[in-house]
Amino acid sequence: MDVTSIIDSLNDAQRQAVTAPSQAMLILAGAGSGKTRVLVHRIAWQIQVGGSHAHSIMAVTFTNKAAKEMKARIESLLNIPTHNLWIGTFHGIAHRLLRRHAAQAKLPETFQVMDSGDQLRVIKRLLNSLNFDDSKWPPREVQWFINAQKDEGIRAKHMLETNDLHQRQMLLVYKAYEELCTRSGLVDFAELLLRGHELLRDNPDLLEFYQARFRHIHVDEFQDTNTIQYAWLRLLTDGKDNLFVVGDDDQSIYGWRGAKIENIYNFQKHYPNHQVIKLEQNYRSTGTILKVANKIIANNTGRMGKELWTDAGEGEPCSLYAAFNEQDEAYFVVERIRTWVNNGGLRSDTAILYRSNAQSRQFEEKLMATATPYRVYGGLRFFDRAEIKNALAYLRLMSNRDDDASFERVINTPTRGIGAKAIDDIREIARDQSLSLWAAAIVLINQRTMSARATNALIGFLELIKALSVETVDLELYEKVKRVVEKTRLMELYQKEKMDKGEEKVENLEELVNAARLFNFDQENEEGMSELDLFLTHAALESGDSQGDDFEDCVQLMTIHSAKGLEFKLVFLVGMEEGLFPSQQSVDDVARLEEERRLCYVGMTRAMKQLYLTYAESRRLYGRESYPRPSRFLREIPAELIQEVRLRATVSRPVANSQPKTPISTSTGSYKAGQRVHHDKFGEGIVLQIEGSGAQERVQINFKQVGVKWLMLAYAKLDVL
Ligand code: ATP
Ligand code: MG
Which pTM does this prediction carry? Predict the structure, then answer.
């Protein structure tokens, strides 16, 4: 048997991990040390040498993209198809189990998965119907509360009655939300995991079956598993030593969403016969990038402690660019990418990583203006766009009449004369009689209390859905989608819409038909689901595959969170500013600040060849203008590892490690209107006025070259002439 392809490209520690006899294993190692590679090769080894069947193997990854990559890598190592392997995210795998065993999971066969936007809408509506004031009970907070309970495995019925009024009200909403979801056959993301766990826990035969089936279970990015995910792994591996996990405590970045770094310790306790293997050589980055990342993370406390090394050579120094605003920042980054491409580099080897999704817009605009293909992961997702959601809502209703979220979404879109009053009446009947909105609409029609016109409009809507279901039964999926966007007049609606990007919406609907045509039914289907249901689930679960196709060479844009596990030759870590990165909410809280620092470590260690760090001296974000200070993380980088870039010349005067330049004086007394000053970047100018005091003190200057600007005195590098 030829195993060279599996083990030749591994170092000793990696090889030891891949070829170890079956036992519980923890691979604890820093970024880029080959953890994911070990996991993939381990699976190949189990199949090729251990004689395991592909279907006895499960591997859990963090994103759909990672799962796809993993499958492709195993296929190319072994030259066999991998559709029998269960590789996916926790959510994806839980969903598969629930589809297979819907009845045992106490779910209707046609249950629909809601993404977090759908969930928020359902919660909003629920709060309204309970007469909760939105301003006192922000729907997002309620959503957060409910999901946090579910992530801990706690149902409303498990929560103790308390005297705390706030808690009592939350509990009430949680209960009502559970009832509503049950009634409508809706399952949110957190529910997938919780319900999946309950399914296995409460059905011993089923559990035994899956315990016997999955002889090997592997988990990538183990540091970011939450309580319910870990409980789930424990159930499946109960009494056995077949859990193989890889992770890095320094890359734990989902604490805010309930991930428990302690699971690494729990693992060691719960699987006493486990073996720990540490990998210390980094194969991804240059020496300089690695040093910068190591220096940053060294500021955190309570680390498990490991130092990475590389024999890749020092490489280029990291670069720092101080932009004067967010547009200049985007301009700079896009120009560097263009230079990279002009020198023969691939666009897909470059990534712009940001802390918050809202930052992407500036970069998108500059990329578009220069006709540079790009792709945004997360955030602006294709399946999240209003026109797509409308089309999907019709499809969902065709599949499940009780899907209230969809019903409400399209009952009057396009407008068909069903007014707010009628919709309110439907809601009220639904609430009073515990009916779905669909059933309530029928009740309302039969009451004959509405005007003939309104009644006809409502009947027309119900008949449209029914007719669509019947006449599309035998059509191919894409024909179904096409028929729906046409017959519902959605296509017509956007064709007529001159403003508000109607044309783009039409294209998006066409793209939806196309997505349905390309949908790989065979690969996704194992559970006997209808093609339509599979497609709808795919739309809800697919996080972040937006524009462009997989094969086009395009610049990659994503949050640092979604870059976890990935690598790019050229990385731009942008918006390195206090209040943005680290985020405003984290600056006063040590634990959260350390999580931000780990996020910074994750971002930096994505870079293979070159790392650029940028910040803006003034930034307009969420409609507000601010004058942020450079991120503290920049100051944690030793000066010799970083050099500041100027647009035309590169100066080696390192500024990152120095404190912000002390202002000439902190009092307004040091500047007077009419004074001549010099600024490093903007050149010579005249002071016009001064306002604010202390850290907020600002000065308005009329620069000869760039015109009038407001600068924060604490950071403006000004010399009086
Ligand atoms: P992260 O913590 O970011 O998820 P990781 O530890 O999972 O990183 P991998 O993505 O598996 O690391 O590997 C990082 C890079 O190093 C990949 O390009 C991989 O192919 C390469 N690599 C890993 N091990 C070796 C090796 N022994 N020889 C050559 N290249 C290797
Ligand atoms: Mg990895």
Answer: 0.75
